[in-house]
Design brief:
Blueprint (H helix, E strand, L loop, with lengths): L6 E4 L10 E4 L3 E5 L5 E8 L16 H12 L3 H11 L12 E7 L7 E7 L4 E8 L2 E10 L4 E8 L4 E8 L3 E7 L2 E7 L3 E4 L5 E4 L9 E10 L2 E4 L4 E6 L1 E10 L15 H15 L1 H16 L3 E3 L10 H10 L5 H18 L25 E2 L3 H5 L13 H22 L9 E2 L12 H4 L4 H16 L2 H22 E3 L5 E3 L9 E3 L2 E3 L6 H20 L5 H10 L48 H14 L5 H13 L3 H11 L13 E2 L5 E2 L6 H14 E4 L2 E4 L10 E8 L3 E8 L2 E8 L1 E8 L2 E8 L4 E3 L3
Parallel strand pairs: 29-33
Antiparallel strand pairs: 1-6, 2-3, 3-4, 4-5, 5-10, 6-7, 7-8, 8-9, 9-18, 10-17, 11-12, 12-15, 13-14, 15-18, 16-17, 19-30, 20-21, 22-23, 24-25, 26-27, 28-29, 30-31, 31-32, 32-35, 33-34
Helix pairs in contact: 1-2, 1-8, 6-17, 8-10, 8-11, 10-11, 10-12, 11-12, 11-13, 12-13, 15-16, 15-17, 16-17
Length: about 775
């Protein structure tokens, strides 16, 4: 393994967002461009959104829902769709905003002879190095989680640095400068819309509808001279300049008005800066690296040294597009980058990661940079537990808990149902009602039930019964109540969740595209998965009650799977013809992944139908869709398809792209395109799934190892049951397996199974070959 497995580097500055390099500590995000004369750093703060708390007073629409259900059950699908569009859609969610852009301008024009810009993801540190006029210049940047500050250090071999510092912010704000300090105090809009040219239209309101107030403070420490001007700081005659930045706002909770906030956000910013300067650069850096590496170093992977350390990352991607056989380190880099983004984008106390993580590049960002919860937010956390990062799921657990509260009124007033539900778009204010627009995306209420899988998997990986009892099961039970209330008998006596949609996909009714069906199979699979996991949770805790008995009774009556005339699985209630057979969503394979209802050993016929479904869908798609397909094929244990989909995921996409197939941008961000971060996590999870899978007390070793990765290892994965797994192989054959855990497990490798006892005291090593 070379440094190319954990280093991104380039021989030119970034000119586009998808070339810049991301830094983060969960709450504060930065994108470093590395320009020699006019440096730009994009800034984000996880709780800086448009909008305000809505109290979740949801208009009662139960009778209208009953009418829509009646139309769908009578087979009047177009009429149901039109009625839902007119009566059961709601308001769009708010926007995740950019905090601003740092501009650091060199007042002396420099013409570099050499240049290198890099990101070491093993340390979470970004560097820029160049030589101009025989003088060496260096820059180093990181975001400290312990210190909660962004730090950027400029150095020169001579005292010739001449820099102007300022921050450009599109939101309403004021700038204050004083000696060595630059400060912005501002307010986010109460509402934001964008025109057809993606220009923001801000609405600022007072009182209870007031937006979030925020502060950004910067302190400059230098051996040169610092002069404060009206809107910038000017640093001259310096060989070293260090910028310390902190940002905070007065957001407290989704259900609290910001106008009543007691958060002293300006003082918090100031104290962080004071502490950072007092600690000093070297100590901040060492503490940052130590904090980061205690998570990153838990897992290591090697597929063989590609000897590409001296090739810039963008050129590696471009060369890989034409020759996929000579860069195994690039696969490692893709895997490691997903772990890096998880640690940098999701920390205890931060918000969960959005569609762009914590790195959105403009005010009117794609899809509002919101939480799209019909696949994308869930995908953000697919690799987290497997890759031994349980701490990074805490923001997601808090997010789900919030939705279990805000979704109560939606379940009650939209559907007349108990429990809670959530539809396909969510924001900081935890909107759970349907968004505006076409029912093909807006009218889908199963996000809450899907998130319950994450709750139960948190227990499966950690075996934390307190978490299961106090946190997970109460929310799962409320989701079950909603689903039970939504079930009705179909014409054959089966229970179906009616009506429903298959996220963002449509089928033909005559010459029209329609999304609303009596039910859909993704919906039924999520309900089945929720019911099965909830029953397991009660059994683990040795509990049973009336609700548990209702769930057991309903489970046996749920609509069974059906295989279509093409040999694939039904997507809708009837064997409909989809309007696009290569559609990016493959929602009706939820039962294959992330659930494990369909399994090649337990349900071979359904697994074969799932395989046929994927063959029809094809091996291309958007970036995140490719990530999902990697996981599907890993579950089907098809090593050739796994590597083909990973190769497609690594398809080079230019920064100035044309709409089309997905792949990877120069900075390794997933390309939908545009940028969506979920594809990065889908790929990381898929690579892990190719090497190890676990279900209940069964651990499958090298289930879909590609031939390209003939020699290698992966150490530090976590299997369900809280087992650490180290795997080594040569010539595509297992050579050493090290397990560390407690309990009885079935180990499956190459079609053979052995049962072992782990005593929790020491590693157990099995030499298989």
């Amino acid at each position: 393994m070379g440094i190319g497995a954990y280093t991104l580097w380039y021989n030119h500055p970034a000119t586009e967002w998808t070339e810049a390099l991301p830094l983060g500590n969960g709450s504060l995000g930065a994108m470093v461009f590395g320009d020699v004369d006019k440096e730009t750093v994009g800034l984000n703060l996880d709780t800086l959104w448009s909008g305000y708390s809505h109290y979740y007073k949801v208009e009662n629409k139960v009778e209208k829902f009953k009418k829509a259900r009646e139309l769908a059950l009578n087979g009047q699908k177009l009429e149901a769709r039109n009625f839902i569009a007119d009566n059961l859609t709601g308001d769009d969610c708010e926007w995740f905003l950019q905090l601003g852009k740092i501009h650091i301008t060199s007042m002396k024009h420099l013409c570099p002879k050499t240049y290198r810009r890099s990101l070491d993801i093993s340390k979470a540190v970004s560097n820029v190095e160049f030589t101009a006029n025989d003088i060496k210049y260096t820059r180093e940047a990181f975001i400290s989680c312990p210190g909660k500050v962004f730090v950027y250090k400029y150095t020169s071999e001579q005292k010739n640095l001449d820099l102007k510092f300022m921050i450009d912010c599109e939101l309403r704000h004021e700038v204050f400068t004083d000696n060595d300090t630059y400060k912005i105090v501002g307010i986010a809009p109460s509402h934001l819309e964008c025109d057809d040219k993606a220009n923001p239209i801000f609405t600022y309101l007072d009182g209870e509808k007031e937006g979030i107030r925020f502060c950004t403070e910067v302190r400059v420490v230098s051996d040169g001279k610092i002069k404060a001007n009206a809107n910038h700081l000017h640093i001259t005659d310096a060989s070293e300049v260090i910028f310390y930045l902190s940002a905070e706002n007065n957001f407290e909770s989704f259900d609290k008005l910001t106008c009543n906030s007691q958060v002293n956000y300006e003082e918090i910013c100031h104290e962080r800066i004071e502490n950072a300067v007092k600690l000093g650069y070297d100590r901040l850096l060492s503490e940052h690296i130590a904090d980061y590496k205690k998570y990153y170093d838990r897992v290591s992977v090697d597929f063989g040294n590609s000897k590409k350390d001296n090739v810039p990352t963008d050129r590696r991607l471009h060369e890989f597009l034409h020759n996929k056989n000579n860069d195994n380190d690039l696969y490692c880099l893709l895997f490691n980058y997903g772990r890096y983004l998880t640690i940098s984008g999701s920390r205890e106390g931060s918000q969960a990661m959005t569609l762009q993580g914590i790195w959105t590049f403009k005010t009117c960002s794609p899809w509002r940079s919101n939480y799209t919860v019909n696949i994308n937010t869930e995908m953000n956390y697919w690799p987290t537990m497997m890759c031994s990062l349980p701490e990074m799921t805490k923001p997601l657990m808090s997010f789900i808990k919030d939705l279990s509260k805000s979704g109560i009124e939606t379940a009650k007033n939209y559907y007349g149902a108990d429990g809670f539900c959530c539809h396909h778009n969510v924001d900081l204010w935890r909107i759970s009602t349907p968004s505006g627009g076409n029912p093909v995306w807006s009218f889908w209420s199963l996000a809450g039930a899907w998130f319950c899988r994450h709750l139960f998997e948190e227990y499966e990986y950690t075996l934390n019964k307190d978490f299961l009892r106090k946190d997970a099961l109460p929310i799962m039970a409320e989701s079950c109540k909603f689903c039970l209330d939504m079930l009705v008998e179909d014409k054959d006596g089966y229970l179906i969740f009616a009506p429903s949609t298959s996220p963002e996909n449509e089928f033909k009714v005559g010459k029209e595209d329609c999304s609303v069906s009596q039910t859909t199979y993704m919906t039924m699979e999520i309900v089945r998965d929720l019911f099965e996991n909830t029953i397991k949770a009660y059994a683990v805790l040795g509990e049973s009650n009336e609700l548990c008995e209702k769930i057991k009774s309903a489970l046996g009556k749920l609509l069974p799977f059906k295989i279509s005339k093409t040999g694939g699985l039904y997507e809708w209630y009837e064997d409909e013809k989809g309007f696009d057979k290569h559609h990016r969503h493959v929602s009706h394979l939820y039962a294959l992944h992330p659930a494990n209802i369909i399994d090649i050993e337990r349900t071979p016929d359904l697994a074969e139908a799932a395989k046929r479904t994927l063959e029809i869908r094809g091996d291309h798609g958007t970036g995140w869709s490719l990530g999902w397909k990697i996981n599907f094929w890993a579950r089907l244990r098809d090593k050739d398809k796994v590597i083909k989909l990973i190769d497609n995921q690594l398809r080079y996409i230019k920064p100035k792209y044309r709409p089309g197939r997905g792949g990877t941008f120069p900075n390794m961000f997933d390309a939908h395109p545009p940028f969506q971060i979920d594809g990065n996590f889908g790929a990381t999870c898929g690579i892990a799934q190719a090497l190890m899978q676990s279900f209940d007390n069964k651990i499958i070793i090298l289930p879909a190892l590609p031939d390209k990765w003939a020699d290698g290892y992966i150490h530090g994965l976590t299997a369900k049951g809280n087992v650490r797994v180290d795997i080594d192989w040569q010539n595509c054959k297992l050579t050493q397996l090290v397990l560390d855990g407690n309990g009885t497990f079935e180990i499956n490798y190459n079609g053979k199974a052995v049962t072992i006892e782990l005593d929790g005291k020491k590693d157990v090593t099995q030499y298989v070959c």
